[in-house]
Design goal:
The protein is an alpha+beta fold and 132 residues long. Helices cover 17% and strands 47% of the residues. It is built from one helix and eight strands. The protein has one helix at 2-24; strands spanning 29-31, 35-42, 47-56, 64-69, 74-77, 88-96, 103-113, 119-129. Strands 1-3-6-5 form a four-stranded antiparallel beta sheet, with no helix packed on it. It has a four-stranded mixed beta sheet with strand order 2-8-7-4, with no helix packed on it. The relative contact order is 0.25.
């Protein structure tokens, strides 16, 4: 009898936990792409930019707390105001190869939000050729 009561209690706790997790909801960021390849560009024009479009697919306002580049040659710009459910936004990333050695590069940008997935990593890469 004690085993039966314990089993029923565990079953009820499991069901309540699953229901609470489903009802939680919240903001959720979804990027169209998380990697951008600039291809080949010249050291004569070392600044290149791209945009990472995203949508708040959650049911609460999305707040981007920070977007941090892995080095000083990359700078992200992100919206500071909350993104409402269903709305879109853009994170603009600029790579500045001035003073850098020509060749292949791959850089990361870490985006932190209040969403259900709190951290997302974006990547940029390309090949800067020597000035002639």
């Amino acid at each position: 009898m004690k085993r039966m009561i314990l089993f029923v209690a565990l079953l009820i706790c499991s069901v309540l936990t699953m229901t609470a997790q489903e009802a939680k909801g919240g903001a959720q960021i979804k990027f169209e792409k998380t990697t951008h390849n600039f291809g080949t560009f010249s050291e004569n024009a070392p600044k290149v930019s791209c945009e990472f479009a995203f949508t708040n697919v959650g049911d609460a306002p999305l707040i981007i707390n920070q977007a941090v580049a892995g080095c000083g040659c990359t700078s992200p710009q992100y919206p500071k105001e909350p993104i409402q459910p269903g709305q879109k936004g853009v994170i603009k990333v600029t790579y500045n190869g001035t003073g850098r050695f020509p060749g292949h590069f791959k850089k990361s940008i870490t985006v932190r939000t209040n969403g259900t997935v709190e951290m997302t990593r974006l990547y940029i890469e390309g090949d800067m050729t020597e000035a002639k």
